Amino acid sequence: MPQIKPSTKTYDVVVVGSGAGGGIAAHVLTLAGAKVCMLEAGGNYNTATQSDMFKWNYDAPHRAAGSKEKPFGYYDATLVGGWQVPGEPYTTAPGNEFMWWRARMLGGRTNHYGRISLRMGPYDFKPYSRDGKGFDWPITYEDLAPYYDKAEELIGVFGSQEGLENTPDGKFLPPPAPRGYEKVIKKASDKLKIPCVPSRLAILTRPLHGRPSCHYCAECGRACAVNANFASPGVHIAPAMKTGNLELRTDAMVREVVAGKDGRATGVSYIDKKTRAEVTVNARVVVLAASCCETARILLNSKSTLFPNGMANSTGLVGKYIMDTVGSSVSGYLPILEDLPPANEDGVGGMHLYMPWWLYKEQKAGKLNFARGYHIEIGGGRGMPGAGILGGSHRLLGGGYGKSLKSDLRRIYGASVHFAGRGEMIPNEDSYCELDPNVVDQWGIPVLRFHFKFSDDEINQAKHMQATFEEIITAAGGKVTGRSGNPTRGGIARGGEIIHEVGATKMGDNPKTSVLNQWCQAWDCKNLFITDAAPFASNADKNPTLSITALGWRTSDYIADQIKKRNL
Length: 568
Known about the structure:
By secondary structure, the chain is an alpha/beta fold. The protein folds into two domains: 1-52 and 66-78 and 102-158 and 222-308 and 502-568, FAD/NAD(P)-binding domain, CATH 3.50.50; 164-198 and 326-423 and 455-491, no CATH class. 25% of the residues lie in helices and 19% in strands. It contains 13 helices and 21 strands. The chain has helices at residues 20-31, 47-50, 122-125, 127-131, 141-155, 180-191, 232-242, 292-301, 360-364, 387-397, 402-412, 456-475, 545-564; strands at residues 4-5, 10-16, 36-39, 80-82, 91-92, 102-104, 197-198, 246-249, 252-259, 265-272, 278-288, 320-323, 326-333, 353-355, 374-380, 416-423, 432-440, 446-451, 479-483, 502-504, 528-530. The strands form five sheets. Strands 1, 2, 3, 8, 9, 10, 11 and 21 form an eight-stranded mixed β-sheet that branches. Strand 17 (432-440) and strand 18 (446-451) form a beta hairpin. Helix 1 runs parallel beside helix 13 and helix 5 (141-155) crosses helix 13. It is globular, with a radius of gyration of 23 Å.
């Protein structure tokens, strides 16, 4: 049996997880004067010293193409993590498909995500009231708007004031100018009356809080060595460390929340990965932000005589109603971009333009065969060619070799474009995670088993995405060269593949039908809070990171206030 290390120190707060939700909790609470212990299941990560942003693809195997260990490229900002983590399995129920990405590193997914930072709108907080599907949130857009302001002003988000329906404007830095291929796409989009506006990304176009502006290396997924884009280690955790109020422990695999005889949380128990010893951290308040499904796993494993089905699970809803973003993609080729002279298309690591959802009136009138909407992310241009780009070009040309192949590649290089839809999934009873009764990880902790199902709303939405992308490509004078996803199901990506899973500890206004109240506080345990994506009652088409940060800030302000009032 592993040795259990006794702990005599009691912290004000223990935070589990160091990504967007855990990072903002530590940031807000330490600056408020709380003594915080942060636990991260992965290793330490310093973007300034460990980023590979300046390395060349030709110095890596297979021109830095992705692999099983590094799906998003050899230089992607990952340590040990991804779809499969050695020694830390998960399972799926028979007949189900679900992919679970784990980021085992300080800062979690904030190190390599796309930095897309979209506010949810007024409609998104009350979807059930609009169409009778899913659930309403116990808060409104107006409740969270001040925290969106704070989040944007801290992390730095560029964008433009557009006044669009249900796509709120924010506190923006100036956006970068569109690239050449983006202007071509916008012209086609305008022709089809599809709005195409500057993106909203958490990348600095002006210096902010001592951080420099982006220098356009376009390698944001490798983590930014100069801290010009948002990642939790440099933006949330570094200022928290400077207060002297934060103790950071990495390689800490949390097993469970520990409860006292009165049902209140007294801390958490974790496995020190380096020594395999079991350690207990005592705290007056517990904040879980381990990522949506990992947080559910911790709660389900937190069993005791008071909580036989897991902590905060008297309703049996922990793990229920998990959602991912609906995703589908189409690639195209635009002859207008052929054989152009070399031009500087530098920019940020992502799109400079995107298309927000625009068909609200048609949907309300019943002209669409699916509920909710999606936004469109675009790509293309003359990025550094890797194995995937060259292979795709070779297929487009239909073969060839030698001097003629090189000539053809030069002609078509930069003429490919890509469209990806990101849409809302409606929560359903067939999508949930539970503990697998027969499987444990290498630390002896029961693992999750996933059940997942898309409804006709999501499948029809994906079909609409693909038809729209083809329409845009055709309007630009191009042709479709490839599609992704399951073709028999509208080209929809597999569950979990977009890595936007939310839900699992739904917040609400009724303790019988939700896990958390409006402050992301467990109904069953007054001093237990959750600040990752698990509290989400719905999954709007807006990427979740900005909403995680804003909601986590609101919850952390509440915790700080309740501690001062001695209510916790």
